[in-house]
């Protein structure tokens, strides 16, 4: 049994406006108990426009729920229209920021080099990156999921020192399982999550690798979370669609279909 505290995070993607965000976080706060927070860490990743509202609620009511952003600029300031910087997210007391989500890679052409720059931008500003990696269906069908995913890990961690890397969260999200209802089997998830930990051990040593939390993401629901969380190298879930329903997300946080 590892002493890694699982991180159960809801990635809201482009859903819930700031008023809906307040109602949603209030529901979570009402349902989650100290017992839940002893077992897991709970976080939400709302759209940028919701972060200030979520911060005000979390600060005002001293909630234990953490929050973060879905993306970060690789630059700290300047003429980058539409971007949101690390210092801005830090000012909003974000704990986490997702980097390299497959939807960023797919729709915005984000490369491993950009992910690397974003990981560094996160650390530069005191934020913890949730680095998202994972293969598409073609790669999976060809049986190259491990090599593909480890190459993404290598690319994003280029020149990231151990002192930073030890706090990273890595989310393994097979693209073919995102929003499709197709879930990787627990064994599929373990295969790649275990390989990621192995690569971290090669890059930074076994001790550091044992500290890093590796999440699984892709159609996680209350009905399948327990089997996925039972895998030795799965330390949490990055939940998309099912995280938009507060009751369902609370069940997922508890690894329970009840
Ligand atoms: O970031 C979350 C993942 O993309 C999973 O999304 P999903 O749970 O809707 O499949």
TrEMBL record:
User: Which compartments is it annotated to reside in?
Assistant: Cytoplasm
What enzyme category does the UniProt record give? isomerase
Its job: Involved in the gluconeogenesis. Catalyzes stereospecifically the conversion of dihydroxyacetone phosphate (DHAP) to D-glyceraldehyde-3-phosphate (G3P).
Q: What is its main location?
A: cytoplasm
Family to which the UniProt record says this protein belongs: Belongs to the triosephosphate isomerase family.
The EC number(s) given in the record are 5.3.1.1
List of catalytic residues: 101, 173
InterPro entries (alphabetical)? Aldolase_TIM, TIM_sf, TrioseP_Isoase_bac/euk, Triosephosphate_isomerase, Triosephosphate_isomerase_AS
Q: Which gene encodes it?
A: tpiA
Q: Which residues bind substrate?
A: 11-13, 179, 219, 240-241
Protein name (database record): Triosephosphate isomerase
Tell me how this protein assembles: Homodimer.
**GO terms, molecular function:** triose-phosphate isomerase activity
Is Cytoplasm among this UniProt entry's keywords? yes
Q: Which keywords does this chain's UniProt record carry?
A: Cytoplasm, Gluconeogenesis, Glycolysis, Isomerase
Catalytic activities: D-glyceraldehyde 3-phosphate = dihydroxyacetone phosphate
Q: Which Pfam families match?
A: TIM (PF00121)
- Pathway the protein takes part in: Carbohydrate degradation; glycolysis; D-glyceraldehyde 3-phosphate from glycerone phosphate: step 1/1; Carbohydrate biosynthesis; gluconeogenesis
């Amino acid at each position: 049994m590892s002493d890694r505290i699982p991180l159960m995070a809801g990635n809201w993607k482009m859903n819930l406006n700031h008023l809906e965000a307040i109602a949603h976080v209030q529901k979570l706060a009402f349902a989650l108990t100290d017992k839940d927070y002893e077992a897991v860490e709970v976080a939400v990743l709302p759209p940028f426009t919701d972060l200030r509202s979520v911060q005000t609620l979390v600060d005002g009511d001293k909630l234990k729920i953490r929050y973060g952003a879905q993306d970060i600029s690789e630059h700290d300031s300047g003429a980058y229209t539409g971007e949101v910087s690390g210092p801005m997210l830090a000012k909003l007391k974000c704990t986490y920021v997702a980097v390299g989500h497959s939807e960023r890679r797919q729709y915005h052409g984000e490369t491993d080099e950009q992910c690397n720059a974003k990981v560094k931008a996160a650390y530069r500003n005191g934020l913890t990156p949730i680095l998202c990696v994972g293969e598409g269906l073609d790669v999976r069908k060809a049986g190259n999921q491990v090599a593909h995913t480890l190459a993404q890990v290598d690319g994003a961690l280029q020149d990231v020192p151990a002192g930073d890397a030890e706090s990273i969260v890595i989310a393994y999200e097979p693209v073919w399982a995102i929003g499709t209802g197709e879930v990787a089997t627990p064994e599929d998830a373990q295969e790649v999550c275990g390989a990621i930990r192995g690569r971290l051990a090669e890059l930074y040593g076994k001790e550091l690798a044992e500290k890093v939390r590796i999440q699984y993401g892709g159609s996680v629901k209350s009905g399948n979370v327990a089997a996925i969380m039972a895998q030795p190298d799965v330390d949490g879930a990055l939940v998309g669609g099912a995280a938009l329903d507060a009751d369902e997300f609370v069940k997922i946080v508890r690894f329970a279909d009840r």
